[in-house]
Amino acid sequence: MEVAVFTFNEFSENTYVLFDDTKSCIIIDPGCNSKEEEQLLTDFIDSRGLKPMKLVNTHCHIDHILGNRFISTKYGLSLEAHKGEIPVLMAGKMTSDMYGIQYDPSPEILVFLEEGELLSFGATDLEILFTPGHSPASLSFFHKESKQLIAGDVLFDGSIGRTDLPGGNFDTLIQNIKTKFFPLGDEVVVYPGHGPSTTIGKEKLTNPFLQ
Questions:
Q1: CATH no. for residue 161?
Q2: How many helices, marked H, and strands, marked E, lie in the chain?
């Protein structure tokens, strides 16, 4: 599995395209919020000859859903996320108005993802992990074969997701990082919702929130 990252919108949010040798791909947390950003994402997909199969949100905070409508419409994809994120998604318009940013409201979640299931595309299977704490029902996606983890806003390089938003809980977040992420292995590469990638081993040793 290969991972392509694009940093979009006013929040410098990481949008991910995962793809494999079958040319199938999935788009996770499309934050594209301008014609230029939309073009950058679709040009990459076109240039690689990829076929988008799924539109997925790790969680539904505004910076991760700004491109949902565009991707859903362009590629005919239903939105997939945890059902516990419905209230967060529904608050998107209010949040965008508060920040004064353009937002074409996201389609509703039509495919509900649960821990213990697989998120599959092409020849790739991702394990679904339920990792709330930053938001009520954040999901993370782990590819065991390549030791890569799409973590949303759960864990960052040197930091963790903020827990002061509705549905956030510091103790829950820390517990999920230690019980869901740490056992995956120190060498696992973590792709966060903001900032550069890191590894579980590095964060265990140096992240001040995890000591």
A1: 3.60.15.10
A2: 7, 14
The string of pLDDT tens digits covering residues 79-116 is 999 999 999 999 999 999 999 999 999 999 999 999 99
8 A C-beta contact, residue 50 and residue 75: no
Query: Which residue(s) pair with 127 in the sheet?
Result: 118, 142
Containing domain of residue 145, as a range? 2-210
Q: Angle formed by the axes of helices 68-75 and 35-47, to 10°?
A: 40
Q: Is the pTM of this model over 0.85?
A: yes
Q: Terminus-to-terminus CA distance in the chain, angstroms?
A: 32
In single-letter form, the type of residue at position 163 comes to T
Please state the domain count of the chain: 1
**Sheet of strand 118-121: strand arrangement:** 118-121, 124-130, 139-143, 148-152, 189-192, 198-199
